[in-house]
């Protein structure tokens, strides 16, 4: 399927598996456990040994800590990173340890990859457990996971190897969103913009509701309908989040997906150096466009194939939301996707649907792009009776009501935007994470690369320490957030500082500040007062 | 023939004459039943459309409809809006809830005097004059009082062509013939006659003026004579004369403009304007509304460029002659327009006078060969006399579309006798004779009606004077295009208070009805822009001043802030978040203030909190809710109540609504009424903020507090965080406390509130909140850094004690012992030392 390049990835470097502990309990059926294994060409016996070892470790550690089993096993030559995605469904990443510098990584950074791929999977397909519940043989889950994770890992492929985040990415935080800082005026404008999208559909319902007021019988139906319709929207500028009406978790997922596949940068499919999260400078783009079915004939083909295969048949089409070049920009500014049909129950094939974790709703996803502004509109599936009829109406309404506003918004944002290095603070290399809101801000990637290896390795280690400290704190008391400050002097005389205060974390590397600890601390305070409203000022 | 046609039409339409929803149709005149049916069904079927769009298309359709009905009925037909009808239910007029946008109020001013020689209107002094053979009776018509008693001056007998008092009311001038004007000095009783050469010229008329160079202007066929009447020397001294052949002229005092018609068709016009010298700059009613005109006023008389009127020709060779009654000069929004009736084209041409030009500005269609024009509160009323309907135009906007559908003039407050079917038995004892005459009196659009400038109707046959009123309720209820209606209402000055109340109600209703956000947004724009304009021109504060003395005025301007503070503080203390000294002090103080207030107003007082919780709407409660707001807005303010609301109408000069009022009467009430998902209301409030931001109007924190409440209620904390971080919700103490309150359910939000306190440098509150959350060490550190000494040590000690950690308690104790001199001798020290030792011993024993 599709991505033949996956087969060429050397099998020894990274292994990733997903397995279900509840399956394959009897001897000889162990292979049933495995839902996904990467690299797929690894002999089954080797796959089973990885899964078996992992399961054994989990079972063993559970004796001591029933709630939180092992997180990581560091062996001599391999590290096993565990992540319990769903009850009894585990994701394990096995990475090779060697003496090379490139192999220094942070375990939490690796785990965040597992978290991310799982939460994205849930966003598109729902949980693995539910999927298994629907179809117990596991073939549906396996084929979905296979295409999904393979597509996901494609982003990490560098040449023939998987390039996992190393110490060089220690000033990045996966699973957070990058916000665009805007002035109040622009913010009000954005909100007002957003409202006009969010209430777009409501207003359609309402206007028809008014018309129908005279036909009294319909009123109640429409009222209940209009009352519960809650559209959501997400606005991005370049790869930065501008506004959202979603809950933080869903925002992170959708933001991640949008920056991966829908932002102008992702669409232009030329990786740019300033990208904050993905691919950085190392990613090379492979096989661009080779698997892209451009003409409408292919979608027709799918229609036909769907028509000929009633439900229950195994000839379903697997949606691959993470496929490269999934999206393209249509003439009207809306992003279109060629193939999108999930299994069985959905009737449509062209409008993507996503699942919101927080509100537990299925939403139709419409994305509109004007220059660098991407607007993602989510419409509850339940509020739409006929996709073929209603979605075009919504889009039409959107264009009529909002296009001028979008134009203005784009202008305003472009004018106020400082460019790729907008958030660069000279002299500092920093990462600022707001854990409450899943928001992070970091020095531009291009600036981070100017740091010496020693500083970055030191930062990587420091972060590992902080991660550990945080997890211990968490075990002690869920709510209590203790303050934390660590300053270390790296080999190259750089100051590497971490400070965590009441849910916010600030990491920074000061290479030029090689005077005294006091100096470094003052530099930190200055930064805190200037850019963080004094959130990290200690005394 | 025509009768037949109507019959057919009526049959066709008759089927539709059933109940159209809630629209009720009633017919009154038996003989014209078929036609009434015809007309009624036409109107009934068209009105909803016209009403909806105010669009010309439906309007023309209605016009066609009406043209088919030759004989016009006094129909009061449709009761469209239950709200409107309920407000009018007590009036019980002849139309019995007729739909109309303009009304005249019964009783009229009666100005019939036995032996009267006719009625004259002196628009310079706003007097209605009715001379008899030896006396002249005068009624003041502004302000209009139907029971005004006339004053009289005695004059000598003789023919009377026109009669006018001088502007200082000392002299009376009477035109006796086309050659003679007679002057009376009221004080001395001396008379003087001015005569012109009868062979060469004749006097067309005269008027007094407040020009600096002259005080009376005589219009003769040979031109204008600007003269000064000197009572001492009993002479008329000619200052200047303008030589023009004049056929007829028009003068209105409000515009100070005299139009002289000349030429064969009388369609060439020369305009002169006499301006009073000390013209206040920017005062309402400045001609043209352009201050530059003042420069010319020293010249006294300004000659406007000559211009020609357009006239459609019915035939190629015919030359229609323009008559004086076809020209109307009106003053709207301080601009002067001339309206010319073109009967051939059935158009009302509209010319606007500028200082240096006369520009034609569109034409209005007319549907009657006889047209009269009135101006009420800057709204142009075109009476289609034959059709007996009025069309309203607001010439402020560029569009020449009518404001509302053509509807009949309504006679309010008059109970037609003999209408037993309406259950009005009280009038049964009246004699049939008086009934007939009164019925005749009350006939609308009689031949004897004269339309006086600007908004009066004089019934010359019966000697009645009516004042025309706009029915703002009906106008605002007639259109669903709320922003336009709001614009219209915001421009109303005469009934500013009523317009204001209607605006608030409209805005609230449209939010409660969840109209599309972009429309609400436009409405907000209208309100805010109007307010901003009022602030800039000062009319807003002028209105305030008129309401009360200047001293309390300034207080009122500044006090919404303090009021808001008080409000939120009480809210907080009621919520019980902060059991701390300072907050309770504040709330105590505000309670004291409230109690003082409620003592001061004696009757029917509604406590602020109870009124705020009250959720039922309606006019009574609306007024009741005015009360707490005015209480909040300052201790000296006298609360509005139902009776006073009407009397205050005249005091408020602008309908502009302050953001605070929008909050109180729109958002806060809409919130109560709507319930459910508040996201819509939040969206509307963001629109409101955007508007205010554009106009640079400051928003008081109560709006933000409400937003936080709404967002928190729907658990949209993520958005709330975004709002706070992007500073859409501007930081303030009230906002911070509301965040703390909301943060009880969502910890990050609470942190936002605490951070906001820190950023606002509210050290005291910041440290208190930190202590409450158990961050007493951080609080101590912060207190030491910023030298905050207002907080009792026991607070920290209590908090440390609660943590049950002896080390920490010891740390805190040590801190105070080291940094507060004399702490060791306080009771706190002793208490906590004891607790500490207990803790230590228990841990040792364990």
Summarize the structure in short.
The complex is a heterodimer of chains A (539) and B (846). Chain A is built from 13 helices and 20 strands.
Helix/strand layout:
The complex is a heterodimer of chains A (539) and B (846).
Chain A: E1 14-20, E2 34-38, H1 44-64, E3 72-74, E4 78-86, E5 89-96, H2 107-125, H3 128-134, H4 139-154, E6 157-158, E7 161-162, E8 177-178, H5 184-212, H6 216-228, E9 232-237, E10 240-244, H7 248-262, H8 264-268, H9 296-308, E11 327-329, E12 335-337, E13 353-356, E14 361-370, E15 373-380, H10 387-416, E16 429-434, E17 439-442, H11 445-448, H12 453-476, E18 484-489, E19 495-501, E20 504-510, H13 517-531
Chain B: H1 2-14, H2 33-53, H3 56-67, H4 82-88, E1 102-105, E2 109-110, E3 120-122, E4 127-131, E5 135-140, E6 151-154, E7 162-165, E8 171-175, E9 180-185, E10 191-195, E11 203-208, E12 216-220, E13 223-230, E14 235-243, E15 248-252, E16 257-262, E17 268-274, H5 293-297, E18 301-308, E19 327-332, E20 335-342, E21 347-353, E22 358-365, E23 371-376, E24 379-384, E25 389-393, E26 407-408, E27 410-412, H6 432-441, E28 449-452, E29 456-459, E30 464-470, H7 472-478, H8 482-490, H9 496-512, H10 517-537, H11 539-547, H12 550-575, H13 581-600, H14 608-613, H15 619-632, H16 642-647, H17 659-674, H18 679-694, H19 701-713, H20 717-725, H21 733-742, H22 747-759, H23 763-772, H24 776-786, H25 793-802, H26 806-819, H27 827-845
Parallel strand pairs in B: 1-27
Antiparallel strand pairs in B: 1-30, 2-30, 3-4, 4-5, 5-6, 7-8, 8-9, 9-10, 11-12, 12-13, 13-14, 15-16, 16-17, 17-18, 19-20, 20-21, 21-22, 23-24, 24-25, 25-26, 28-29, 29-30
